[in-house]
């Protein structure tokens, strides 16, 4: 296993910190019997070939070796390696939910990107070549850069896509631990082009005795499946005695049927979107934020539930922070400001009632702006993207009409 690592010239591939020469040893360390060494390697790989959600030239080359590891049932922390593979395929899932990964768009955006990438100066042997390549990148126009970035991300996606049969085998093999079944379900949720392989296994997983696996399988079916059997399975799961499975069924049906999903689906999603329960740690989507996902799914049901959905978001807003706040407040902003950013200089008093209510709630909820004990930069960026104050203190002054 992993013998082919030496056949790749990692010195000619880049990751977040330059040459990818450290990647082979990190991949090997994932198979170590030393837990601390595995943890170190996982942290390094999340930092260099998946840096803050970005994928790099080296990312796609690492994937086949990570797939070798997950093919082997005795690989330690196999569920975590599956999680890394899914991250390399799609980045952060909040970018794609509730609609699924837009692979057709990526294929169009990446057109011509490989040719541009191959035309870049080689890294050579000196460190100055990395700077030379960086300077070359800056000479490209924005469209060319975007095509290369799309190609690099699509290359990683397609490399992981080749592992779909492996993920199906993990999910369906007798005796696979629940954590690995769950990781395999989540991995299968992002490859609609492979639905002919994944849907039969996911339909089987809806009957899994572990509620998180069954619920996650339903969500995955909603993201990749379209036939009548998928819809009928999700509808039947609305009567499952396990509340998290009913949540998964409602999310799936909102995606599959949209406004035709029916009142039971809207009632379930409204109840979940206003819930103040803690995240369900075992559910992988949105890091277990079931209420946040329910709020996103409500939008797929059309405008009929718009006001109730907005009220549920406002109710939940004071109790969230960190990544959950990005989902809840992001959805509330989208509903309150459908036209996008507020024009510079527009006073609070001139906003409509829904906008004023949302901004007042934000001014009164300073904890929502935080990540642990720190200010949350991503949250502030989201607010400034709407032309709004980027800190709770500034929001308080804006709401009070103070300069």
Short description:
This protein has 21 helices and 6 strands. By secondary structure, the chain is mainly α.
How would you characterize this protein structure?
This protein is mainly α. Among the domains are: 1-162, no CATH class; 343-403, no CATH class. It has 21 helices and six strands. The chain has helices at 23-29, 35-48, 57-71, 78-90, 103-109, 113-118, 128-139, 142-161, 164-172, 178-188, 195-205, 211-224, 228-237, 243-257, 263-273, 290-298, 306-316, 322-336, 353-363, 377-385, 392-399, and strands at 14-15, 18-19, 50-51, 54-55, 370-371, 374-375. Strands 1-2 form a two-stranded antiparallel ribbon. The chain has a two-stranded antiparallel ribbon with strand order 3-4. A two-stranded antiparallel sheet has the order 5-6. The mean pLDDT is 94.
Q: Please outline the major beta sheet.
A: 2 strands, antiparallel
Q: How would you classify the helix and strand content by structural class?
A: mainly alpha
Which band does the percent of strand residues land in? Answer: under 5%
Alpha carbon gyration radius: 23 Å
Shape: globular
SSE run: EEHHEEHHHHHHHHHHHHHHHHHEEHH
Distance between the amino and carboxyl termini = 64 Å
Question: Which strand order do you get reading across the main beta sheet?
Answer: 1-2
Number of strands: 6
- Count the helices. How many? 21
Q: What is the residue-averaged pLDDT?
A: 94
Helix content: 55-70%
Poorly predicted runs are none
Distinctive features:
6 strands; single chain; 59% helix; mainly alpha; 403 residues
């Amino acid at each position: 296993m992993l013998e082919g690592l030496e056949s790749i010239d990692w010195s000619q591939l880049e990751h977040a910190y330059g040459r990818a020469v450290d990647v082979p040893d990190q991949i090997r360390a994932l198979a170590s019997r030393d837990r601390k060494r595995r943890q170190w390697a996982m942290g390094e790989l999340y930092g260099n070939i998946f840096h803050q959600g970005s994928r790099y030239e080296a990312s796609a080359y690492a994937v086949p070796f990570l797939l070798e590891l997950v093919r082997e049932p005795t690989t330690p922390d196999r569920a975590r390696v599956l999680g890394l593979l899914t991250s390399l395929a799609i980045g952060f899932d909040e970018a794609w939910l509730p609609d699924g990964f837009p692979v057709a768009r990526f294929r169009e955006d990446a057109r011509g990107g490989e040719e541009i990438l191959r035309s870049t100066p080689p890294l050579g042997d000196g460190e100055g070549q990395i700077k030379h390549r960086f300077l070359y990148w800056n000479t490209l126009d924005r469209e060319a850069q975007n095509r290369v970035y799309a190609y690099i991300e699509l290359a990683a996606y397609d490399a992981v896509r080749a592992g779909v049969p492996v993920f199906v085998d993990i999910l369906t093999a007798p005796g696979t631990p629940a954590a690995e079944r769950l990781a395999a379900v989540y991995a299968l949720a992002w490859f609609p082009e492979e639905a002919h392989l994944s849907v039969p296994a996911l339909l089987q997983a809806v009957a899994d005795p572990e509620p998180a696996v069954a619920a996650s399988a339903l969500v995955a079916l909603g993201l990749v499946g379209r036939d009548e059997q998928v819809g009928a399975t999700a509808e039947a799961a609305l009567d499952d005695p396990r509340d998290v499975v009913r949540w998964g069924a409602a999310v799936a049906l909102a995606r599959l049927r949209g406004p035709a999903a029916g009142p039971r689906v809207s009632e379930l999603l409204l109840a979940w979107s206003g819930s103040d329960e803690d995240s369900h740690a075992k559910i992988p989507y949105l890091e277990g934020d079931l209420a946040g996902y329910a709020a996103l799914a409500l939008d797929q049901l059309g405008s009929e539930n718009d006001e109730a959905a907005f009220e549920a978001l406002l109710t939940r807003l004071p109790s969230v922070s960190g990544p959950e706040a990005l989902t809840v407040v992001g959805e509330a902003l989208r509903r309150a400001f459908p036209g996008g950013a507020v024009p510079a200089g527009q006073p609070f008093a001139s906003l409509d009632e829904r906008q004023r209510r949302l901004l007042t709630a934000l001014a009164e909820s300073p904890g929502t702006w935080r990540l642990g004990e720190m200010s949350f930069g991503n949250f502030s960026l989201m607010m400034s993207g709407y032309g709004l104050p980027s800190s709770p203190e500034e929001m308080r002054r804006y709401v009070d009409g103070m300069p």
